[in-house]
Automatic annotation (TrEMBL):
A Pfam family of this chain: Trp_Tyr_perm
Keyword flag Transport: yes
Subcellular location: Cell inner membrane
Keyword NADP: no
Organism: Clostridium muellerianum
InterPro entries: Amino_acid_transport_2
GO process terms (BP): amino acid transmembrane transport
Descriptive protein name: Serine transporter
Stretches that traverse the bilayer: 17-36, 42-60, 90-111, 131-148, 155-179, 199-222, 243-264, 297-319, 340-357, 363-387, 399-418
Membrane topology: Multi-pass membrane protein
Keywords of the record: Cell inner membrane, Cell membrane, Membrane, Transmembrane, Transmembrane helix, Transport
Length: 419
């Protein structure tokens, strides 16, 4: 291309804007609304140390993820290109890992929607008691979520842009509102070195997931490859969209986390952890006036519910594929009742999250437990590809050591937290 042709081809357009919005929307979910709780529990110094490693490593790993995918000859889903690079067994393993990520998301968002909505209803005086531990309330919440998510992709994508922009705006506004409640007394003393290292490793899943949007990178890269004959052009556009989304998220989320933890005490964070609610619901309980409560409610609805919708679409397709794979092994195609399979998927999608809601499993523990999955998918597997596949050797760089370090910290987080 000439310089003029390159400028015309790389001009930022509505498609680029759409992918930036999708990346930001994917990142703003349970990770961000529960980040202040964990930061408040362990102290802001731990978060800063974790972020010093985690945020640069996340940028490098997502860039590496794009690079290893965009140059693939077929450029299909990431499990597919893993199969091409390393064999079918690796593709099967990665597909299963992705399914676990979706299950974790469904469980996390179901609990968060139930507990936080009950807390907000009680905070606004709509209910006289907190309904979060009422079994039928949890069932009603999950039924409503599944019913809305089942309206189809067009319905969900139609409202995505407005919701994402609203979510991002509310994050920034809330961060500024919380400044009036800042207190130096809420900054815990600098911890000893052993505590700092251990808690920074346990903190890593929260740091990474607060601005993680790796799930959106595969469809984005495939889209750019499909609509651009030039791999160089597709790579440029994908990296640019990722850079813009990452920069916006980092600035917004970092300011949000710092502002919340200057305004909330360690005791408040521990109370939120024990109640299994987000920092937003906790703030709605403790700060007088309706402004913060309304903004917190908006962010909770848009962040957690839209994240549930996105995760449900993938969960439904993955579960259907798993069930059909099993049925095809024991029954001929004509004897498979697809209507029953469809209703069976809906039943599983309701009953499994409802069970997790009933036992009220800690969301903070969920995020820590699934740290190794994010470490594998986002850090260790892409780095392994670069060193294993000669075709990808051009992406080797000393900075990958930071990606490996972050991946190892994610894998080690649950071991240090629970053993």
């Amino acid at each position: 291309m000439t310089e003029e042709e390159w400028k015309a081809a790389t001009k930022f357009n509505s498609t680029d804007f759409g992918w930036v919005i999708m990346c930001i929307g994917m990142a703003i979910g349970a990770g961000i609304v529960f980040l202040p709780v964990q930061v408040g529990r362990v102290g802001i110094w731990v978060y800063l140390f974790s972020g010093l490693i985690g945020y640069p490593a996340l940028w490098l790993s997502q860039r590496l993820y794009i690079n290893t995918l965009v140059v693939s000859p077929k450029c299909e889903s990431y499990p597919s290109i893993i199969s091409d690079y390393l064999g079918k067994n690796w593709g099967l393993i990665l597909g299963f890992v992705y399914f676990l990520m979706l299950i974790k998301a469904i469980f996390t968002y179901s609990i968060a929607c139930t507990n936080d909505s009950a807390t907000f209803l009680h905070s606004f005086g709509v209910t006289s008691t907190n309904l979060g531990r009422t079994p039928l309330y949890g069932l009603a919440v999950i039924c409503i979520l599944v019913a809305l998510a089942s309206q189809g992709e067009k319905f969900l994508f139609k409202i995505a842009s407005g919701m994402v922009i609203t979510k991002l705006s509310v994050i920034v506004v809330l961060a500024f509102i919380m400044m009036q409640h800042w207190s130096v007394a809420n900054i815990v003393n600098f911890p000893n070195f052993g505590y700092l290292i251990k808690q920074a490793i346990i903190m890593m899943p929260f740091t990474i997931t607060s601005i993680l949007f790796v799930q959106c990178l595969s469809p984005m890269v495939i889209s750019y490859r499909t609509h651009n004959d030039s791999i160089v052009l597709a790579k440029y556009k994908a990296i640019r969209a990722m850079n813009i989304a990452y920069t916006i998220l980092f600035i917004s989320v970092f300011f949000y986390a710092i502002s919340f933890n200057f305004a909330m005490s360690q005791q408040q964070a521990i109370a939120a952890y024990n109640q299994n609610i987000s920092a937003l619901a906790m703030v709605a309980q403790g700060i007088p006036g309706n402004t913060v409560k309304v903004f917190s409610l908006i962010l909770n609805i848009f962040a957690i519910m839209t994240a549930f919708f996105g995760a449900f679409l993938g969960f439904r397709e993955a579960l259907q594929g798993l069930i059909m794979n099993i049925l095809h092994r024991i029954l001929p195609e004509e004897k498979i009742n697809k209507t029953m399979v469809k209703y069976g998927i809906f039943a599983v999608a309701i009953l499994l999250p409802w069970y997790v809601i009933l036992i009220n499993f800690s969301i903070v523990k969920f995020i820590i437990i699934f740290g190794p999955i994010y470490g594998l998918v986002n850090c260790l597997i892409p780095t392994y590809l670069v060193y294993k596949v000669p075709f990808l050797a051009k992406f080797k760089h000393a900075s990958l050591a930071l990606v490996v370090l972050a991946g190892c910290m994610l894998v080690a987080a649950p071991l240090l937290a629970f053993l």
